[in-house]
Amino acid sequence: MSDADLSRRGFLTRAGVTLGAAPLIGLVKVEDAVASPPPTVYDVTSYGAQGDGTTDDTNAIQAAIDAANSRDGGTIVFPAGTFLVTQALTIYSKIVFRGAGLRASVLKKAPQSSPYPILKSPGYDPPTGEPTPIYAWSLQNISLDGNRDAGALGNGIQAYSSGFSMFNVSIYNCSGLGLLSAFHPDEPPAGDTLEAQLVNVWVHHCTGGGIYWDGPKDSHWVNIVVYLCGPTGGGGSTTRGVEIANHSHGLRVSNGHVWGLNHSIAWYVDCNGPSLMNCTGEGAERAQLVVVGNDSVVVGGKFFASRPDNQTVGIEIGDVASSDSTAGTFINTKIINCELGSLKFMNDAGIGRYLLSIWQTAGNAVVVRAGQHMKQSNRLDIQLAGGAKYGDLGELKPVTIQEETLARQGVEVRGNFRAGSAASKVGFFGALPQPQSGGWGVGNQPDQRLLDDTADLAQVRAVLATLLRELRRYGLLAGQAPKIGP
Fold it and tell me: Residue 82: beta bridge partners?
């Protein structure tokens, strides 16, 4: 045995390893040790994408997507650049698109003879059927350019899916819709999420409308801006900035802004139980908000004409095109300069509550569709300024409440109380008077002896107190002697 062998044996012995014992734990084959783990990030430039705005990058991007999909998902990375696509990119479950920032990484549609979306879920070509949905995909820090000015046709995104998200995304310049989302099942398969989330999303300059949302239900939108989604010139628009259809029940929107003179309707909400918090609609030709579904909640924000002639409606309740009438609406917001009606009842089933601050210089604040009446079960609390009239209150008629009648019922009325009167000193209609207080006495009442037709309840009380004092003075009240002296 050589000295080298002895030296090696001594080293291994000192290291605590006995030759001839079991194999060393933790040692693996060399080829296994150097093998790369499956990738989770796929840079599209590694698959041949150029991002120069002229090279067709469709196949390279789709190759990166397919590679990630073959390993059950991954992140597709887009460095700064403009990536031209000539046909729809198909996205799958658990795929994340991550760009370098808004308008830094752009997917741009190339003009083609037939319409196609920039991005779609597998097999989804509405309105033909319902394909197998996808889940848990995401777009982040990226823009989609529909390139309509160069003649490109079709939508920006069309997806049949749930549980997806968009963060810091802009979709613009599409000849069709910017975003079309649908999901019709009530629940996703076990283990998959239902609600989608949109945060910091801009959709603008899309001819066919901004967002059409027909599910998934119970989704959440935060900081959504939609503008100028309609025809490029002239009036008579039929587009809707945001249209929410009836598979979207329970949608919650916070800080949404829809504006543009080329919308027919800014917000069209046709689902049950939606909530719009601090949202704004402006400039639309027909109405800034149309509420069609039941149990809608609108709190904060404002809705205003923003049109030179102010000839538009603020908020419409119900739609004559719907077979169902609208019920249970709660709205607390501000409406400005909508001279065709700040609040217009089109197809209403009542039990609504409307707390509105209105500035309107002409026309009627409340309008009811011809031949209809506002339902008596509605409750209105309107603060109106600017010179407009309250308008048609339907079945709610002005009523003068007589104090002596209510007193027998234990009710007290203060001041002039006229339910539904434009001259009322009370800002709500149909509200119940408050229960009567413990009563009032004659003490500390001023000496009041005259009444005219402008007298209020306090003056009446003062006159009655004066009369009682005089009756006591002359002993005309039962059981009292006359008071001698002044």
Answer: 52, 106
What is the pairing mode between strands 89-90 and 74-77?
A: unpaired
pTM recorded for the entire structure: 0.77
Q: Are 52 and 18 in contact (CB under 8 A)?
A: no
Dig out the tokens for 100 from the structure: 């370098």
Q: What is the rounded CA–CA span in Å between residue 64 and residue 49? A: 10
CA quadruple 197, 145, 151, 88: dihedral sign: negative
Contact of 465 with 445, CB cutoff 8 Å: yes
- Tokens, residue 132: 């197998």
Kindly list the distances between the CA atom of residue 209 and the CA atoms of 129, 188, 268, in Å, as whole numbers in the listed order: 22, 28, 11
* Cα separation, 380 vs 365, whole angstroms: 12
pLDDT exceeds cutoff 70 at 47: yes
More confident site: 342 or 445 = 342
SS3 for the chain, per residue? CCHHHHHHHHHHHHCCCCCCCCCCCCCCCHHHHHCCCCCCEEEHHHHCCCCEEEEECHHHHHHHHHHHHHCCCEEEECCCEEEEECCCEECCCCEEEECCCCCCEEEEECCCCCCCCCEECCCCCCCCCCCCCEECCEEEEEEEECCHHHCCCCCCEEEEEECCEEEEEEEECCCCCCEEEECCCCCCCCCCCCCCEEEEEEEECCCCCCEEEECCCCCEEEEEEEECCCCCCCCCCCCEEEEECCCCCCCEEEEEEEECCCCCEEEEECCCCCEEECCEEECCCCEEEEECCCCCEEEEEEEECCCCCCCCEEEEECCCCCCCCEECCEEEEEEECCCCCCEEECCEEECCEEEEEEECCCCEEEEECCCCCCCCCCEEEEEEECCCEEECCCCCCCEECCHHHHHCCCECCCCCCEECCCCCCCCEECCCCCECCCCCCCCCCCCCCCCCCCCCHHHHHHHHHHHHHHHHHCCCCCCCCCCCCC
Residues 6+ apart with CB under 8 A from 414: 457
Least-confidence region, from 75-79, 131-135, 222-226, 417-421: 417-421
Spell 444-477 as b/e; 16+ CB within 10 A means b.
ebeebeeeeeeeeeeeebbbebbeeeeeeeeeee
- Half-sphere exposure (Cβ direction) of 13: Cα atoms closer than 13 Å: 6
pLDDT digits (tens, 9 = 90+) for 148-188: 999 999 999 999 999 999 999 999 999 999 999 999 998 88
pLDDT (tens digit per residue) in 252-267: 999 999 999 999 999 9
- Measured between alpha carbons, how far is residue 121 from residues 85, 159, 160, 242, 486 in Å? 16, 5, 6, 21, 97
